What does this fold into?
Amino acid sequence: KRKRKSSDWIKEQLERGREHEHLVQVKLSSKSKHVVHFNVKAGDLIVWEFATKKRDVGFGVSFEPTVVATEQQPLASSHESLQKAMLPILPTLRVCTHSHPVIGSHRALQDGVYEIIWDNTYSRFFAKELFYRISTEPSVPDDNYLQQ
It folds into this structure.
């Protein structure tokens, strides 16, 4: 099966964007990053789709577990533990998103904060026009999910 071109995917997403999940458009300047953070629960499925009109872009996914207070270690005294670095799920690598869209997913193993990064810091001159959509699906739909 032939992969769709990024330009076709972008056009299709923009045409149906108002009817479906929100498509985000970002101008990613040279030497910059675009970062999105969101909370997930264990078992949630994170789905991403993205493409650029021209040139490649770096992409990565990281995770920080949720810190929960215990009787032995109250949250107020564990401020340093909140400053832990994000754990890489997918290391940031350059991907050719101008030739075909990237579509992927990850199932969360535990509650926490996920960070999705689009990295253009390696580019000295070229800005990128990035189009993306991120969604999460709960492992077990609840009443609130069904009402959305």
Observations:
- Strands lie at 24-28, 33-40, 45-52, 57-65, 87-95, 102-107, 112-119, 128-137.
- The longest strand covers residues 128-137.
- Residues 68-83 have pLDDT under 50 and may be disordered.
